[in-house]
Amino acid sequence: MIARRHLLAGAMALPLAARLAAPCAASAQEFAGTYTPDATAIGDGIWMVRGADEALGFANGGAIANCVIMASDTGAIVIDSGPSLGFGQALGALARRLTGQAVTRVYITHLHPDHSFGNGAFAGAEIHALPGTRAELERDGSGFSDAMYRMLHGWMAGTEVILPNAAADQGEVIVGGRRLRLLALSGHSAGDLAILDVASGTLIAGDLVFHNRAPATPHAEFGGWHVALDRLTATSHRQLVPGHGPLCGTGVAIAQTRDC
What local confidence, expressed as pLDDT, does residue 157 receive? Predict the structure, then answer.
């Protein structure tokens, strides 16, 4: 079951260990690489950008989380902005190439920096998140930033903690002709936003679901997580984009997450 709470202490210790072992960020600045995110079409006007199937580290620039790009009549939509300003900029450029439009709306599924630290690349967009997510970023963002800079060095150049500027509410919204159903959940964190693209039947679950990956649990409340997984199971969908791991069209990813 997910409720193996000893995992929490280990997960929380990893960033600290990396910070203590890392050299000075300034001296490593020149070694930053270049992000080259790629997208796979998974529906009409919807693309999945796969994160690396690895632990967060310097070799991958922290780009381990899945992101989603959607086309709409009023601009591109991005779900989760990635780990840094540089990644967010590359993601925004990819969205423009795919949709022919700039990103005008961003949804952040939860607080963790591999999903939210690219926000600075989208200064002209509305950045939506659950109120709980904003509160957690206000509380923990500076600590996350310190750890990310120490782990990733030059990959993080120019990255600042940019808080969401719009509150996501549960229910259906129409964004540029695209119908989205927002689910306000919790368990992996205090605020976990899941989004169903109704037309394609694509459920974007954030880190409530891991596929072929062990769940990360540093902010988990396991009873709430099980309730959220029940909600996702009960939400009719054709395919699911997990926070980490491959696209799932069978329901196995939810079952795997529940049984970890």
Answer: 95
* 121, burial (CB in 10 Å: exposed 0-12, middle 13-18, buried 19+): buried
**DSSP one-letter code for 24:** P
Is the Cβ–Cβ distance between 253 and 210 less than 8 Å?
yes
Task: Please report the sign of the dihedral spanned by the C-alpha atoms of residue 134, residue 138, residue 141, residue 143.
Answer: negative
Do the beta carbons of residue 17 and residue 234 sit within 8 Å? no
pLDDT digits (tens, 9 = 90+) for 217-252: 999 999 999 999 999 999 999 999 999 999 999 999
What is the reported pLDDT for 24? 40
Number of Cα atoms under 13 Å in the Cβ half of residue 241: 30
Residue 174 has pLDDT above 70, yes or no: yes
In a domain, 111, yes or no: yes
* CB-CB contact of 219 with 189 (8 Å): yes
Kindly report the CATH number assigned to the domain that includes residue 71. 3.60.15.10
Q: What value does the mean pLDDT take over residues 155-171?
A: 97
Amino acid sitting at position 201? G
Percentage, residues of the chain above pLDDT 70? 88
Domain assignment present for residue 28? The answer is: no
Domain extent at residue 126:
6-14+39-259
Domain count, the chain: 1
